[in-house]
Amino acid sequence: MKHISRTQIADLLIREDFGAEVNVKGWVRTRRGNKQVNFVALNDGSTINNVQIVIDLAQFDEETLKPITTGACISVNGRLVESMGQGQRAEIHADELQVYGTADPGAYPLQKKGHSLEFLREIAHLRPRTNTFGAIFRMRHHLSYAIHKYFNDRGFYYFHTPIITASDAEGAGSMFEVSTLNLDQLPYGADGKVDFSQDFFGRPTNLTVSGQLEGELGAMSLGAIYTFGPTFRAENSNTPRHLAEFWMIEPEVAFNDITDNMNLAEDFLKYLIRYALDHCKEDIEFLNNMYDKELIERLNFVLENNFVRLTYTEGIEILEKSGQKFEYPVHWGTDLQSEHERYLVEKHFKCPVILTDYPREIKSFYMKQNDDGKTVRAMDVLFPKIGEIIGGSEREDDYEKLMTRVKETGMHTDPIWWYLETRKFGTAPHAGFGLGFERLMLFVTGMANIRDVIPFPRTPKNADF
Ligand code: 4AD
């Protein structure tokens, strides 16, 4: 085949230099036609749109054409021609065809008919080739880029925090242990406990649940930082909103208080939603039409309205007076369940909500304590259809108060001695939050299950692919 530089289909479809010789490579979505001419819809992942390849059967022998079936990968040399068909400007009239890889029609699972999302999860190695997952994973990319752009343009530094740690950042204990010890022959000490001094790091370690503690060190030196990386929770939560491995974005800013933190969270979320609408138009329109007819409307609604801000105590009063029957009864001191959060957002305020000042007993040890002795300066951002999308707080910057909380919660100080030292050396007010990237992805794609917005989901009893 003659060498012609490859053009991505996204670029090709907006070209107008009709008559030009072009090359495209991609995967066959469909092939149809009659005895004279065939039409192949080709997709290369660069856009949700296919390019139509027009094949004059008289120009090719049957052996070349036979393997061009749904799923096969081909390379096409041809001429760019203005299309007569509806909905596309350009098509390619094929001069030369090469098949890179065949896809046996009897075995290739992605034939033309629509498949259920559940079935597609079982073939996660192939689902990026569908319109739905192509759209979602392109959007994941664009939003990842937007996150870096947002912070870079505002003087934040991308701070790399460790994946393997010896500390429990949330103090919640749901961690995956990391060890090179032989599970069949564990070494035990005189006290009958596993002797971790013989382990790789010489101590117990785990996968991080959050980069926040190290992120705070970054903020207390570089001023404003953010992390963006995978985090791991060994909670046995089989819900449409929980993953065992998810990506989190955690900004942390020196001198910010809780109001600055709320302003940053609201501005950041609106920026990302605006970015998605501006840069992922075709993919969002597809998802809107296929899965969630109110998606674009909902995204615009969030952009156009201020988030409602109220305290946890005020939120509880609304829930108690609502007359609503909740599966989990609600009263002051209880942690809010998704059903309570969604009642406030979807039924009561019909608007995103930021709840602040939670009881300290249900929040992490590092949150700044209020003068009332009961609540902490926590903030959760609650979104329609999602519930909690962001969790954050102003941090306790007073050494004595922090130590009191650490002791009350029964945490070991040994693995976090370095964290505690920041409160001894030039401590300062500071605040930050964590945005669950897949929760954001659920919101901007309109998908209902978090397993469908990450390429290879990790959930209890599922680590395939
Ligand atoms: O509320 P979380 O646990 O907060 C923290 O980890 C803090 N260290 C953040 C900070 O202040 N820097 O988690 C933050 C967010 C949640 O609001 C949610 O969006 C997401 O992370 N999240 C999960 N997403 C998917 N699956 C899970 N199992 C998640 N757990 C939390």
Write a brief structural summary.
This protein has 465 residues and is of the alpha+beta class.
Describe this structure as you would to a colleague.
The strands form three sheets. The protein has an eight-stranded mixed sheet, with helices on both faces. A five-stranded mixed barrel has the order 1-2-3-5-4. It is built from 13 helices and 16 strands. The protein is elongated and about 85 Å long. The chain is 29% helix and 24% strand. It has 465 residues and is of the alpha+beta class. Helix 4 packs across helix 7 and helix 6 (258-279) runs antiparallel to helix 8. The protein has helices at 9-12, 62-65, 117-122, 131-153, 212-222, 258-279, 281-290, 295-304, 312-321, 338-349, 399-408, 417-421, 437-445; strands at residues 21-33, 37-43, 51-56, 73-82, 90-101, 157-158, 164-165, 177-178, 205-207, 224-232, 245-254, 308-311, 353-359, 375-383, 387-394, 430-436. Strand 14 (375-383) and strand 15 form a beta hairpin. Residues 169-170, 210, 212, 233, 242-243, 246, 248, 250, 388-393, 432-434, 436, 438-439 line the site of 4-amino-1,4-dioxobutan-2-aminium adenosine-5'-monophosphate. 4-amino-1,4-dioxobutan-2-aminium adenosine-5'-monophosphate (4AD) binds at residues 169-170, 210, 212, 233, 242-243, 246, 248, 250, 388-393, 432-434, 436, 438-439.
